[in-house]
């Protein structure tokens, strides 16, 4: 690959994970130009990027990945050399009520972006298209075992079906047109900036406000959890050292049943809020299970660990503690994101992702 000044397009950079990736790249690589492209859906929030908004190597473009002309303009204006693609509809429950929105953004939007890169880039050797995906494409592990990079895709929800499809398109563009691509499949993320429709921020929000903590079924579903900054670090490592054409699983080596996470949050919040032990657990309310709820996801992240030397830096309890502190110290952020687009629905249901 030639050494040229990198101008990296990060899509979905105003969202939860994207904002941590943008911050890491802007701060760690002042020699790169970082272009955050995001259409600011309910999940996108520029407040997530206030620490770096004045940085000279940071640019923001409010564009929808469904708008082909908008994408071409951004590629031309910023002479984009590489793409890290995170923009997506990301919430399983929303995919159950509105699958088409997921087909549009996650599949058609990804193909639009692939087409723009394919047309705009002249010598593919000089460029990289890095697609961020999920472990949910592998389906549910109901009887033990772990997802490997070689595990066959078996998506079960409209969300995971749309992500699986986008992964296939990325591989198809690598195979057919010889685009240099990378794909990572990561487990559940938690940490600052996550919209409070997902399990951990929703529970923190509801415990603080003495609202019910709705738990699907019996809370037996198992997920692997990773602190979001560790995911951003993994993306940095794969972008710089990953072998083009490869897939890397990313995970926390950290499986938890949903009910155990909710209980841990209750315990920690009681301590932090000075409440009697056991107070917050009384808020737990079991509700009808999610349709087609996958029982267990568990990722084997040993390939990225062995080949690229990445591993999670934070223990789960430490990460949870930091996360609770962040939400308690950022009431204004929570108030802003929960007004307007936020609906009462999300105080009554919780979702693991
Ligand atoms: N959250 C997780 O635990 C997790 C785990 C593994 C992989 N992922 C993947 O990582 C990526 C980011 O996830 P997240 O949790 O940060 O999501 P998020 O919902 O918090 O953020 C998505 C961002 O994409 C933007 N966006 C959505 N549709 C768009 C469109 N049509 N055009 C332009 N921008 C658009 C939104 O405004 C938002 O800023 C997704 O691709 C998701 O599938 C998420």
TrEMBL record:
Residues 9-323 form the NAD(P)-binding domain. GO terms for biological process: nucleotide-sugar metabolic process. GO terms for molecular function: dTDP-glucose 4,6-dehydratase activity. Keywords: Lyase, NAD. Its cofactor is NAD(+). Its EC number is 4.2.1.46. It catalyses: dTDP-alpha-D-glucose = dTDP-4-dehydro-6-deoxy-alpha-D-glucose + H2O. It comes from the Bacteria. Pfam families: GDP_Man_Dehyd. Belongs to the NAD(P)-dependent epimerase/dehydratase family. dTDP-glucose dehydratase subfamily. This is dTDP-glucose 4,6-dehydratase.
């Amino acid at each position: 690959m030639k050494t040229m000044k990198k101008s990296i397009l990060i899509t979905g950079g105003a969202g939860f994970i994207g904002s941590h990736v943008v911050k890491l790249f802007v701060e760690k690589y002042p020699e790169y130009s970082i272009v955050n492209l995001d259409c600011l859906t309910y999940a996108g929030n520029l407040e997530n990027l206030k620490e770096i908004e004045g940085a000279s190597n940071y640019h923001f473009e409010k564009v929808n990945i469904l708008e082909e002309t908008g994408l071409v303009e951004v590629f031309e204006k910023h002479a984009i050399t590489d793409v890290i693609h995170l923009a997506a509809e990301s919430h399983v429950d929303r995919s159950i009520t509105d699958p088409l929105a997921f087909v549009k953004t996650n599949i058609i939007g990804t193909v639009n972006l692939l087409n723009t890169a394919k047309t705009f880039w002249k010598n593919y050797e000089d460029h990289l298209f890095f697609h961020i995906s999920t472990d949910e494409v592998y389906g549910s592990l109901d009887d033990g075992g772990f997802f490997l990079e070689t595990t066959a895709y078996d998506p079960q929800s409209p969300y995971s079906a749309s992500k699986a499809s986008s992964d296939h398109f990325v591989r198809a563009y690598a195979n057919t047109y010889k685009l240099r691509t990378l794909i990572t499949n990561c487990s559940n993320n938690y940490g600052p900036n996550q919209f409070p429709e997902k399990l951990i921020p929703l529970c923190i929000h509801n415990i603080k406000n003495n609202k019910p903590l709705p738990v699907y079924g019996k809370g037996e579903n198992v997920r692997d959890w990773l602190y979001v900054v560790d995911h951003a670090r993994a993306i940095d490592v794969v972008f710089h050292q990953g072998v083009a054409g490869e897939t890397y699983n990313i995970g926390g080596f950290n499986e938890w049943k949903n009910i155990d996470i909710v209980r841990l949050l209750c315990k920690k919040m009681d301590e932090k809020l000075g409440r009697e032990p056991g107070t917050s657990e009384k808020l737990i309310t079991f509700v009808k299970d999610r349709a087609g709820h996958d029982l267990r996801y568990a990722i084997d992240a040993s390939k990225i660990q062995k080949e690229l030397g990445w591993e999670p830096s934070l223990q789960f309890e430490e990460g949870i503690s930091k996360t609770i502190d962040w939400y308690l110290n950022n009431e204004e952020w929570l108030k802003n994101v929960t007004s307007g687009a936020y609906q009462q629905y999300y105080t009554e249901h919780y979702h693991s992702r």
